[in-house]
Amino acid sequence: MSGSDDDERVDDVQIPADVEVDARSRWAMVRSVGGRALLMAVGLGIAGALLVWAFDDLDWNEVVDSVRSLDDAEIIALLSGTVIMVWAESLLTASVVEGLPARRGALAWMGPVAVASIVPGPSDMPVRYKMFVSWGYDSNTAGTAVAASGIINIGMKLLFPVVAAIGLAAAEIPLGTIMSILISGLIIVGVFVGLMIFVIVSERRTHWFGRVLDRFWRVTVRLVGRSREGSPIANWLVDQRAQSIELLRGRWGRAIASGVFVSVARVALLVMCLRFMDVPESAISWEAIFAVWAIQRGLTIVPIMPGGAGVTELALTGLLAAIAGNEFINQITAGVLIFRLLTWLLMIPAGGVALGLWRLGLRKSATAAAATGP
Prior knowledge:
Elements: H1 3-12, H2 17-54, H3 60-68, H4 72-95, H5 102-118, H6 124-134, H7 139-171, H8 177-200, H9 203-223, H10 232-247, H11 252-276, H12 286-299, H13 311-324, H14 329-345, H15 347-372
Helix pairs in contact: 2-13, 3-14, 4-5, 4-11, 5-6, 5-15, 6-7, 7-8, 7-11, 7-12, 9-10, 11-12, 11-14, 12-13, 13-14
């Protein structure tokens, strides 16, 4: 058989369209993951460069040596603290959905968090919504549960920083001009959030606020040559408020308690990370560590970078060093890196496993339904 015949036969072979599409999809996914990984690396690199510029005593070799000094008992304690944190987050996720067991709460937290750790924005919410629906909850219940968990999370991120900022301001701790401006901004935001809560707790005030928004909306609509009558925004806000109260009746207390448990677990883990890196109580108390953690949470409420890459490290290290003193900058940096390893980077593969277990459970359910079907 001639070589030309072989070439003709090879040319006649056609690749199925679905194979080509699948290959393109895989390549697009690889590029997307690579781009996000590069974005995280850039954020961390910028944060590291800013820390080196701001702190003359920062020595990365000493930071690495501090991390390597962890003994087995300390590693076990840190991993145990991480497990407790994950369990607390699982209880919070399960608390807003009636009848949801904590094990599914763990999947519904870890899986979406892995997505949010590499995709900036509220990318965890659609994944969590799909999980709730796949477990048999209707769209209203699933949507309200996702919204409620988001509201609690954002509320904690705004409330705690305000309390911490007021405490730091009252203590007259020198934090530098930039941090002082940020803390002042957090206090202003806290006042705004307090006013919003004051409005939402009352149906009458909610309807009044909706009517105010409707007036602005009607002016905007007229500018484009259209007209709108009535109070659609006010009615929608009142309906959503009533629906949320009905679906979450009797669960708000448990959800808030779980949210506090989450905060305690995270702060305790950060305290352990710093103490194991030889940052003493005399340099910075656990109350000050809580204040710094709370302010950092408030600063990252707008997810500019995936997982807060760079922003979180810079905020934690800068604020902690401002309180403890620059002589502890290497130990503080090491403690912050360990904390971020446990609460961010480790959650990416762990969340991937959670998503895999969820998908496996769906396949098993589909197989069982097919086997028992008519």
